[in-house]
C-alpha cells in the first residue's frame, strides 16, 4: 500500500492578519483564500482511498439528515465512499461553499467537525485544519468507527475513533429522532462486533 502524501501547493498560503500588524483586530477583515487548500487536501484524500482501498466513490445529492446538524451548510460538494465488503464503514466527505469548511460523516450517525469556525477572527493555520481532516479520514480507512446508541427519554448516540492522537468522538441526544430511524441504527449496529464499523479492505495491486 502506498502512503498518503499531502499535495504540495505552488505558493505559501498564510493569514495576512497574523503577518500584518496594521490589520490588528479589525472585524471587517477576512481572507477566505487562506483556507482554500483544505478542499484540495480533501480531494487528495478521496483519490488516495479510492486507489488504495476496495471502495466505491460517488457523489450523492445529499447525506442522511441525521448528519446534517454537524456538517457544513450550504454545501458545495458531497463525496460518498462506500465499502465493497459488509461491516465496513461508509463515509461522506462534505465540502462547504466557504473555503476550507469540510465535514466528515461516517457509519450510521458519526460526524466530525474540525476546529475551524470560518469567522473573521479565526487565525488558525490552514495546515492545522488539514491535519485534522487527514487524521480522521485515514483513521476511518484503517480502523473504522465505533458507534453506540441508547434509546429512551434520555438516550443518546455516541461515536469514537481509535488509535488516533486526538480524542475524535462525539455524542448527540436521541430525543427527537424518529423511532424508525432508531430501529435502523440499532439493527445495523447489532450485527457489528461491539458496535464497530470496520475500516476498508486494502485494494490488491497487481505486481
Shape: globular
Order of helices and strands: HHEHEEEEHEEEHE
- Give the number of helices: 5
* Spatial extent as radius of gyration: 18 Å
Largest sheet features: 5 strands, antiparallel
Give the strand content: 15-25%
Secondary structure class reads: alpha+beta
* Count of structural domains: 1
Output mean pLDDT: 83
Range of helix content = 25-40%
Strand count? 9
The first-to-last residue Cα distance is: 12 Å
Low-confidence stretches: 13-21
Strand order of the largest sheet: 1-2-3-4-5
Summary of the model, kept short:
The protein is an alpha+beta fold. The protein has helices at residues 16-19, 37-52, 65-68, 126-143, 179-190; strands at residues 55-58, 75-83, 91-96, 102-106, 110-112, 145-150, 156-160, 169-173, 196-197.
What's the structural blueprint in terms of helices and strands?
Layout: H1 16-19, H2 37-52, E1 55-58, H3 65-68, E2 75-83, E3 91-96, E4 102-106, E5 110-112, H4 126-143, E6 145-150, E7 156-160, E8 169-173, H5 179-190, E9 196-197
Antiparallel strand pairs: 1-2, 2-3, 3-4, 4-5, 6-7, 6-9, 7-8
Helix pairs in contact: 2-4
Amino acid at each position: 500500500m502506498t502512503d498518503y502524501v499531502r499535495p504540495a501547493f505552488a505558493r505559501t498560503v498564510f493569514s495576512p492578519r497574523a503577518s500584518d500588524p496594521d490589520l490588528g483586530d479589525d472585524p471587517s477583515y477576512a481572507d477566505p483564500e487562506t483556507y482554500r487548500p483544505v478542499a484540495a487536501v480533501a480531494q487528495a484524500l478521496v483519490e488516495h482511498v479510492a486507489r488504495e482501498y476496495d471502495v466505491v466513490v460517488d457523489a450523492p445529492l445529499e447525506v442522511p439528515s441525521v448528519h446534517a446538524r454537524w456538517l457544513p451548510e450550504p454545501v458545495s460538494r458531497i463525496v460518498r465512499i462506500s465499502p465493497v465488503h459488509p461491516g465496513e464503514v461508509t463515509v461522506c466527505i462534505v465540502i462547504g461553499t466557504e473555503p476550507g469548511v469540510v465535514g466528515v460523516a461516517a457509519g450510521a450517525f458519526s460526524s466530525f467537525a474540525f476546529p475551524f469556525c470560518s469567522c473573521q477572527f479565526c487565525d488558525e493555520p490552514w495546515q492545522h485544519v488539514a491535519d485534522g481532516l487527514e487524521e480522521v479520514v485515514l483513521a476511518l480507512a484503517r480502523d473504522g468507527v465505533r458507534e453506540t446508541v441508547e434509546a429512551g427519554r434520555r438516550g443518546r448516540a455516541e461515536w469514537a475513533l481509535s488509535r488516533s492522537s486526538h480524542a475524535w468522538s462525539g455524542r448527540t441526544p436521541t430525543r427527537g429522532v424518529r423511532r424508525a430511524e432508531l430501529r435502523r441504527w440499532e439493527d445495523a449496529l447489532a450485527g457489528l462486533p461491539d458496535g464497530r464499523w470496520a475500516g476498508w479492505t486494502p485494494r490488491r495491486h497487481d505486481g
